[in-house]
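[worker-b] picked up task from shared queue
[worker-b] task type: protein-ligand structure
[worker-b] ligand name resolved to adenosine-5'-triphosphate; SMILES cross-checked against name lookup, match
[worker-b] sequence length check passed
[worker-b] input payload:
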Amino acid sequence: MTELELRDLRKTYRARGRPPVEAVRGLDVRLRSGELLGLLGPSGCGKSTTLRMIAGLETVTGGDVLVGGVPVTDRPARRRNVGVAFENYALYPPLTVRENLAFGLRARRRADRGDVDRRVALIAERVGLTAVLDDRPATLSSGQKQRVSLARALVREPDVLLLDEPLSHLDAAQRDTTRREVKRIQRDLGHTAILVTHDQEEALSLADRIAVMRDGVIEQLGTAHEIYDHPATRFVADFVGEPAINLLPAVTAPDGRAAVSGAVLLPLPVRLPPGREVVVGVRPEDLALTGEDGVRARVLAHEPLLEYGVATLALDGVEDPVAALTDPGTRLARDDRVRVAADPGLTHVFDAETGVSLR
Ligand SMILES: Nc1ncnc2c1ncn2[C@@H]1O[C@H](COP(=O)(O)OP(=O)(O)OP(=O)(O)O)[C@@H](O)[C@H]1O
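[worker-b] inference finished, payload out:
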């Protein structure tokens, strides 16, 4: 069981003739032993660079990586006991799956053959690779290759496990089962782990806490619940959630609500002085279609899905359309007139300029 800590971790890429790229600009985070942290953020925000620095595959420009309280920043990758499963597999083509899995183990530990074979067989079974142990990577599906990459990281019993889009090439069913299996293995073996993924659902279901990164810094760190229900910034609110939150520029009114386009008054979760420029956020599931009361709107489109529907609405007098979730079985046609209401307890409000939550 091992704690992982990043202290003011930084990376600037410098290449001749090009402006420097500040990929990671001071990360401070401490993972409890056995904790799984999900790292979320848009492309280019520095997720892979962070993992590579922890693994020792990239030099750091500043700051420290500590494993079990011990700085490992200056240690080469092979002396860190950090297991990495990359999206792009990095398997050895001439070796069989079994040899790919055993390779690092034998080289590193000079473990006896029987022990290595047992570990390989055990992990292969847990990630569903037993049937292809004697095949070579070229003959495997992309999902199988991804599982070999994962198994290879696990088989070494690392102190810290880094997973970079580990399930991205699996189909929906495989992803579901592998996701559960990854979580179980990580729990059982007590790995302290970081998972980088574009798949929010994956992060929300696997991770104990989530860090949302933007431009090389962590914008918010918290449980899935905290991040979804109390986004610290407009960016986090917008990034997490599908369909995306409705964000409407507004000005606070004397009655404590906020006026959108000077026309529609929306409730706010806090009392703010009038005349302040804000952005009001309402998640589609928190915008209810009501009977009599509420803001008047016109239906632009309605997409009925299996468990719910998504209505795209034009609030009267407001240019930007909004999305609202509808109950299953709801029938709506283009140009139908409806009314919608937002619960003040479930709305969000951000400073128009800084994007910081004002709740
Ligand atoms: N070797 C490199 N040399 C120069 N710049 C790089 C290098 N690797 C990454 N970058 C830049 O650093 C920034 C962060 O990249 P990084 O790959 O860490 O982001 P990411 O969040 O993992 O993105 P993605 O989700 O697309 O993988 C980007 O602007 C990227 O262009």
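[worker-b] attaching auto-annotations
[worker-b] The first helix runs from residue 47 to 55.
[worker-b] releasing lock
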